[in-house]
Amino acid sequence: MKNIIYNKSGFTLIELISALLIAGFLVLIGSMVMINAVKSYITDKTTSNLAGKGQIAMMRISKEFKNLTSVTPGKSSSTSIEYQIYRNGSVETHELSWEGSAGDSLLYNKFLLSGDILVDQVKNFQLAYYDFYNDSSPNSAWVSSSKVIGVTLELLSVDNTSFIFTEKIMPRNLP
């Protein structure tokens, strides 16, 4: 008589298919977690960069406005201002302006060629002119009694969120 020996080592087809399905499911979940982590990182990086740009723009605007000596009559509005500052032994004329459409850039010295971009992705930019610091009713244009400039800068971020920067600046070199 012959003894038939069955080899019991190895996996059945059902066991292999089950193992592949479980492995595929784990890879799917792992890849979804990785994709969400990468998207979150990119969003955070973009948002952080935009916040930094806004802070730098506000510091530059604040420095310029603190040092202004006069505002050109008739050249100020709620979205632009032309002013003079004393720098390096001479009086310089500068302009800060925004076209008024969401996503446009805030331009510095627009009248010189095309102007320099101070910050981009501007959703809103507003200037208000006050007679004194705690004044609650601003003017929409600079008048001879104006002593404080209110600046509101709103930058458009990812997913239509925005950053809003506000500051009241009192020029120290006004006559």
Task: Summarize this structure as a short list of keywords or feature phrases.
single chain; 175 residues; alpha+beta; 7-stranded antiparallel beta sheet; 1 helix; 7 strands; 36% strand
Fold and architecture overview:
It is built from 1 helix and 7 strands. The chain is of the alpha+beta class and 175 residues long. The chain has one domain. The chain has a 7-stranded antiparallel beta sheet with strand order 1-2-3-4-5-6-7, with helices on one face.
Structural class: alpha+beta
Shape category:
rod-shaped
| Low-confidence segments | none
Instruction: Work out the helicity level.
Output: 25-40%
Radius of gyration: 31 Å
Order of helices and strands: HEEEEEEE
Strand order of the largest sheet: 1-2-3-4-5-6-7
Strand and helix layout:
Elements: H1 13-66, E1 68-76, E2 80-87, E3 90-98, E4 104-108, E5 116-130, E6 148-156, E7 162-169
Antiparallel strand pairs: 1-2, 2-3, 3-4, 4-5, 5-6, 6-7
